[in-house]
């Protein structure tokens, strides 16, 4: 059955990939709500921009009146809430934006959704869902003992970003317990793939490398992350909204733990094959002469304040309950990602002139 989905943050990295997947793989209609901050790019929606089942609305989720009008106008069956500020370094430098969007914005969306839900007839209430999309960073940092985050791991956020997402998670649960809003929450590991803004780790590595610039690595590079290909995440989100249990949380992980330095070297190795230094016209003659591999550009920089050592996400619950598992292998996913960036300079070229303080890599990926 076709549903109308109100999806927030649909011009961002995970959002645009999810919107494309829904339009291409399901019969559902998407009302795509995005403020269009620096990380929300209309160009990311080009593959579905002319599709009649996709409608874009440029709205800030903290605008209560506009959100109320949007719900009244489109009468969605499901809400998928992805809109968020996500860059950890930016949250350290400018936490106000994170509190406003991630906490106040989520509160406003919950408040308006509750009023909308309370006015529904019984039949529509029976299939309404509010799906809050969160991060595994709310659980804090793991040591190197082989443990992994589960849905019952206590929250221990360590950056303004993860604290703001943890606050949003708690608000969503409170609206379920107090007001009986039918919610579900997902917490995913690091995402990677096409359309990721070029301040995140993998795009930073690709673009720094092909221009012959130093590739920054925080500290020792031994911090560990679990990497999830974004299309696998999109499939998981749809599994949850279509078949998940109300009030439940599902962790979504890629079962793909790597240290940052291992990941960066893998990307450099793919670039060595896909964009050989000897034929890379973006490099000067001097740069080509001085490089054997793009990995020679790796440069250690001072560590980030409060840098979490390790994330690992146990996705057993969603695998057993909903039959989801990641399909993309690490090697294939990285190759697809590198190939996409090499083939889509028109998309990323206008975005690489962002301000200098944030040209550091965000190792958290989402």
- Give the tally of β-strands: 12
Measured distance between first and last alpha carbons: 31 Å
CATH class of the domain at 4-197 and 227-256 and 310-328: Alpha Beta
CATH topology of the domain at 4-197 and 227-256 and 310-328: Rossmann fold
* Percent in helix: 40-55%
Count the DSSP helices. Answer: 13
C-alpha Rg, in Å? Answer: 20 Å
**What strand line-up does the widest sheet have?**
3-2-1-4-5-6-10
Find the structural class using helix and strand composition. alpha/beta
Output mean pLDDT. 93
Fraction in beta strands: 15-25%
Please tell me the CATH architecture of the domain at 4-197 and 227-256 and 310-328 by its name.
3-Layer(aba) Sandwich
By CATH, the superfamily of the domain at 4-197 and 227-256 and 310-328 comes out as NAD(P)-binding Rossmann-like Domain
- Biggest sheet architecture: 7 strands, parallel
- List the secondary-structure elements in sequence, H or E: EHEEHEHHHEHEEHEEHEEHHEHHH
Instruction: Detail the poorly predicted runs.
Output: 354-360
Oligomer: single chain
């Amino acid at each position: 059955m076709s549903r109308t989905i109100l999806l927030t943050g649909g011009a961002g990295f995970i959002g645009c990939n999810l919107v494309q997947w829904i339009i291409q793989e399901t019969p559902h209609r998407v009302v795509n709500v995005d403020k269009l901050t620096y990380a929300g790019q209309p160009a990311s929606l080009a593959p579905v921009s002319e599709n009649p089942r996709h409608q874009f609305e440029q709205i800030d989720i903290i605008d209560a009146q506009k959100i109320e009008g949007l719900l009244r106008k489109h009468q969605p069956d499901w809400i998928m809430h992805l809109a968020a500020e996500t860059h950890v370094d930016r949250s350290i430098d400018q936490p106000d934006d994170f509190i406003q969007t991630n906490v106040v914005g989520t509160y406003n969306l919950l408040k308006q959704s509750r009023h909308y839900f309370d006015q529904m007839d019984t039949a529509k209430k029976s299939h309404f869902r509010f799906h809050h999309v969160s991060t595994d960073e709310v659980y804090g940092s793991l040591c190197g003992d082989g443990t992994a985050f589960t849905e019952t791991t206590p929250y221990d956020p360590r950056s303004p970003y993860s604290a703001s997402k943890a606050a949003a998670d708690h608000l969503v649960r409170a609206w379920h317990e107090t007001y009986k809003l039918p919610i579900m929450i997902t917490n995913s590991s690091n995402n990677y793939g096409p359309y990721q803004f070029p301040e995140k780790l993998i795009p930073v590595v690709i673009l720094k490398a092909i221009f012959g610039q130093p590739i920054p690595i925080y500290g020792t590079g031994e911090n560990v992350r679990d990497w999830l290909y974004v299309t696998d995440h999109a499939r998981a989100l749809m599994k949850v909204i279509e078949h998940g249990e109300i009030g439940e949380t599902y962790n979504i992980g890629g079962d793909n733990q790597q240290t940052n330095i291992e990941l960066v070297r893998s990307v450099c190795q793919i670039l060595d094959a896909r964009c050989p230094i000897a034929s890379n016209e973006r490099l000067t003659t001097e740069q080509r002469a001085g490089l054997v591999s793009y990995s020679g550009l790796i440069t250690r920089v001072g560590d980030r304040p409060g840098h979490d050592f390790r994330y690992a996400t146990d996705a057993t619950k969603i695998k057993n309950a909903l039959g989801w598992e990641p399909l993309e292998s690490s090697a294939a996913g990285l190759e697809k990602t590198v190939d996409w960036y090499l083939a889509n300079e028109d998309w990323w070229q206008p975005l690489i002139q962002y301000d200098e303080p944030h040209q550091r890599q965000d190792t958290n990926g989402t």
